[in-house]
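Our platform keeps sequence and structure together, in a single record for each protein. Such a record has a labelled line for the sequence and another for the backbone structure tokens. This encoding replaces a full spatial description with a residue-level series of whole-number codes. Below, we set out a record of this kind in full and without editing:
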Amino acid sequence: MPGSELPAGTYTVSQFAWEMKGLLGDTYPSVWIAGEVQRLRTAARGQIYFELVEKGRGDRVQAKLDCVIWAEDRPRVEAVLREAGVELSEGVVLRCAGRPDFWPGGGRFQFVVANVDPLFSLGALERRRRETLQALQAAGLLEVNKRLPLAPAPLDIGLVTSEGSAAYHDFLHTLEQSGFGFRVVLVHAAVQGAAAEAEIGRAFELLKAFARDGNRLDAIALIRGGGSRTDLATFDSRRVARAVAEAPVPVICGVGHQIDVSISDLVAHTTCKTPTEAAELLVGRVGGAAYGVEETARALTRQARDVLRSAENRVSQVTYRFASPSRALLVTRAAHCRALERDLAWSAKRTLADAERLERERRTRLLRGAFLPVRRAARQMEAHKRLCDQLSPERTLARGFSLTRRADGGLVRSADDVAPGVELRTRVRSGTIRSRVLAMAEQSRQKDLLSTEKRT
């Protein structure tokens, strides 16, 4: 549009645009601004575009400003941030030095970033962290999850992490290598970036509903790999911390850091430095429970064998001088006891072989299965004891009976078994009486066994 056709004092678009560009450059040659990074993206030529956002109450956006870091300035800016342990990512509060610029060709206003202040970002993170801790303490949530009991054998695990990540694979590989029957319910969630806070909170809500529906859930593992201070800022957020604190089961936090402790670590039941260490904690606890069950099974087996050996010894010590019916009954009972011992030994071996599988399904079933044979054997052995006591010679003598034998050991059953001059030994309850036959009476009369010598 020719300038001669315009009224006096009227700018063309290009004239005004370049006038604005020059005015902004002269007025604000360098200025510091601060805001939260959003809509971060990298262009093909290496420049970085993002928005600086100022939020008000309820995270409502009050103002935003388009920003750019040109490709030639990018290495220097990233080096400054990296040295301080800050990564340029969405959600980071950033203080930038630069100048406002207006691009006439696109009619676009943007802020050109030339330098950054990483200490300001760290300070904002720390301030937000302190505010979150104070809010959690006021709500009484700092110790809630820690007070929940962790199962002796936590086999049913809820897993909150980014599916397919290195942390995900390390955690599952450690559980699989253990050989125990872990059952893992995965709920995928981003663990970094603008969406991470909401997705982690949603994941905990889903696991809470899963447990509320009657599904077994022993613990929840919240894991991710290592990263910078700003990468881990998600785990300092109030929403994530409340989700961890209010979880219905113990939460094991395995965030890949060696020095820093996030707020999620502080409110979780147990804190581990890496995802692998979190998995090893679970494996170790299940392994300890399995060892305890095996030790209990071995102890029960030993006790059962001791009971059986004691019973067998008592039965074997019964004299074979009893009458034939008694001897036969004792032999039968002894054989039955040995059969019981073999059956119990076989049952104990089978119980030990199945201990690991039974532990995966239900720990208490192993204990019940081990106790029942022992109780049954104990009842049977008590019955054998009572029977042996009733059939013992001492019981018969105690009722007033006596047992008479010749000197050669032969049992006197009738008068025909003795003759005059034969030495006799009569056993009564209190001792043994020695005597000699002086004479034999007629068969129609009771034989008179006169005692000439008595010894006790």
